[in-house]
Amino acid sequence: MSNIKIAPSILSADFSKLGEEVIAIDKAGADYVHIDVMDGHFVPNLTFGAPVIKAIRNKTSLVFDVHLMIDKPERYIEDFAKAGADIIVVHAESTIHLHRVIQQIKATGKKAGVSLNPATPVDILKYIIDDLDMVLVMSVNPGFGGQKFIESSVQKIKDVRALSKTVDIQVDGGITDETIGRCIEAGANVFVAGSYVFSGDYKERIDSLKRG
Ligand code: DX5
Ligand code: ZN
After folding, report:
1. Residue 88's beta-bridge partner residues?
2. Is the pTM of this model over 0.90?
3. Which positions in this protein are listed as binding a divalent metal cation (predicted)?
4. Which of 7, 50, 103, 179 is most exposed by smallest CB count within 10 Å?
5. For 21-30, what is each residue's pLDDT tens digit?
């Protein structure tokens, strides 16, 4: 089996039993728990914040991969680090001072990632790529689960891989057993899947993604 990692997005989980859902994806073979934080400004939807992350932190030792879809994330980095995030991903479009925010994340001892919306060019990574643990290529417009995979993301993954041979490349949006293969071929190695994992048997779905 390849070294790809699967990060189920709890955006598609049953929020009334979030703790049990996290335990269930752990048992089903997930590598990361992908946690989508939305503020109703950067994206047209609202989800949850640091207190909810803190409440589920003791349910699993899986990596907490926190995807911040919020304006000016620099205001909340320490809160998310304290709540139990392991990787903190900010959007390139969400802050004027992207380099500074990355240093702020690293100062908390956590891993740092930058996410690009579908229309954002890869060039924005040129001067920060060596500071990053992960680049998140959004393959849908952020805000909602269950959207269709945007095909131009495949070329974008290749462009990020050309910038760095070693950075983790995560893809988020519309990932299924049908779309994951071409993203792996393009050079991605971490895959978020929300509706695909949570709409079936969790283990079967995660296994089918790992088969590529
Ligand atoms: C969208 C979120 C995704 C979402 C993916 O803004 O960042 O993580 O949960 O959902 P699916 O896998 O259903 O496209
Ligand atoms: Zn996400």
Report:
1. 66, 112
2. yes
3. 34, 36, 67, 172
4. 103
5. 999 999 999 9
